Amino acid sequence: RVKCNLLNNDIVELNEYFQLEEGRIEVKTYSFHWQKETGKLVKRWDNVPHHQEIDTFPYHIHIERDQNVHSSEPMNFERIIEILEDSIGHILD
């Protein structure tokens, strides 16, 4: 679990729970939450199995702009960092 403040004052919480299975690391659950410093959600990716209507179930993303749940590829810590770098880099340029 990691919580950090970004250069633009946004806040990101990165949570992954994984287990070692047959010599491999298997991610069991994750939640990657990105919000404005005001607390307003930007995006949250997770794999909590509560949106069975999504075609990528259980992988999904909550997006503030439309307050809906969308399909998402399975995410991991490294991919989230790439997304944040791309997004925050554009803000700071």
What global shape is seen?
Answer: globular
Radius of gyration: 14 Å
Largest sheet, in brief, is: 6 strands, antiparallel
* Helical content band: 10-25%
The number of distinct helices, counting runs of at least 4 residues, comes to 1
Structural class: alpha+beta
For the secondary structure, the number of strands is: 6
Query: Order of SSEs, N→C?
Result: EEEEEEH
Average pLDDT taken over every residue? 91
Spatial order of strands in the largest sheet: 1-2-3-4-5-6
Which range does the strand content fall in?
35-45%
Uncertain runs: none
Cα-to-Cα separation, first versus last residue = 29 Å
How would you describe what is shown here?
Helix content is 17%, strand content 44%. The protein has 93 residues and is an alpha+beta fold. Strands 1-2-3-4-5-6 form a six-stranded antiparallel sheet, with no helix packed on it. The longest helix has 16 residues, at 77-92.
